């Protein structure tokens, strides 16, 4: 089991950020917005790494037009960064263009497809050691709920 604070995890996170620099993230955002014909939203969008995220890959905060990415989980799965960025951006753009609606509804799905991404809203990555309180599992023996991306 890899502990959150382990040297290995920190090295992976450093490597992730070395690749996904602010410039690279910005140009990726620019690229995606161009695909969606809404490059004018570029200046309204904020993003950041949020190390407090546990089992979600990222989240969108529509009120702040902000996207947050999970550095620890993405350090283990660096191939997912672009997809997660698109997933969360699609939330912001869907709401901006169409108002409040089902989080993974039609407008969101359309944006995902337009960006050439699968409109799946969950992931199957192993996050057991990232859960906040693994001991809190219910005694009923029910399975833990499926993990959702941000929202
Ligand atoms: Zn989502």
Structural account:
This protein is mostly helical and 151 residues long. It has a domain at 24-123: 2-Layer Sandwich (Zincin-like). It is built from 5 helices and 3 strands. It has helices at residues 7-19, 22-35, 71-76, 81-98, 106-114; strands at residues 46-49, 58-61, 66-69. A 3-stranded mixed β-sheet has the order 1-3-2, with helices on one face. A hairpin with a 4-residue loop joins strand 2 and strand 3 (66-69). Helix 4 (81-98) packs across helix 5 (106-114). The longest helix is centred in the middle third of the chain and has 18 residues, at 81-98. The mean pLDDT is 86. The protein binds zinc ion (ZN). Residues 87, 91, 103-104, 121, 149-151 line the site of zinc ion. Zinc ion binds next to helix 4.
Instruction: Let me know the number of strands.
Output: 3
Structural class assignment: mainly alpha
Q: What is the CATH class of the domain at 24-123?
A: Alpha Beta
Order of helices and strands: HHEEEHHH
């Amino acid at each position: 089991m890899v502990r959150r604070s382990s040297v290995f995890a920190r090295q992976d996170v450093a490597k992730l950020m070395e690749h996904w620099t602010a410039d690279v993230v910005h140009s990726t955002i620019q690229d995606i917005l161009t695909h969606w014909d809404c490059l004018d939203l570029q200046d309204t969008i904020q993003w950041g790494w949020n190390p407090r995220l546990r089992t979600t890959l990222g989240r969108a905060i529509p009120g702040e037009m902000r996207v947050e990415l999970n550095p620890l989980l993405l350090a283990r799965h660096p191939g997912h960064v672009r997809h997660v960025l698109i997933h969360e951006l699609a939330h912001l753009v869907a709401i901006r263009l169409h108002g409040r609606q089902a989080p993974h509804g039609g407008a969101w799905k359309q944006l995902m497809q337009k960006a050439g991404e699968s409109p799946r809203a969950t992931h199957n990555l192993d996050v057991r050691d990232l859960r906040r309180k693994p001991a809190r599992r219910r005694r009923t023996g029910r399975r833990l709920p499926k993990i959702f991306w941000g929202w």
